[in-house]
Amino acid sequence: MLINPVYTTILNAGQIKDWEGCFSVPNKIGEVYRYNEIHYEAYTLEDKKISVHAKGFLDRLIQHEIDHLNGKLYIDYLCNDCRFVSTSDGLC
After folding, report:
1. Which of 10-19, 35-44, 82-91 has the lowest mean pLDDT?
2. Angle (nearest 5°) at CA 30 between 28 and 33
3. What pLDDT score does 90 carry?
4. Is 83 helix (H, G, I), strand (E, B) or coil?
5. DSSP 8-state assignment for residue 62
6. Exactly one of 31, 37, 46, 65 is catalytic; which is it?
7. What is the pTM of this model?
8. In the chain, what are the domain boundaries?
9. Which end of the chain has the smaller Cβ count within 10 Å, N or C?
10. Cα(44)–Cα(46) distance, integer angstroms
11. CATH number of the domain at 3-89, please?
12. How far apart are CA 19 and CA 50, in angstroms?
């Protein structure tokens, strides 16, 4: 569990488009761009501050979950070249 997590992007880290889904948007998945490398900080339940460099799936997951804390969903990041489909389309 992370308490009060925040993330910053890594200088010159690009963005990657990939599929995301969420129980907040049932039966849909969409492609969104996310930074492919971040640094995040948070506190543990024991009030210990942690500082982590994340890449790949973990950095996408952290960005997605922190967005929830900030009132955003992945669908807020859909762009003109991003697909948004029903999961009944066989993509998951």
Report:
1. 82-91
2. 155
3. 53
4. coil
5. H
6. 65
7. 0.87
8. 3-89
9. N
10. 5
11. 3.90.45.10
12. 28
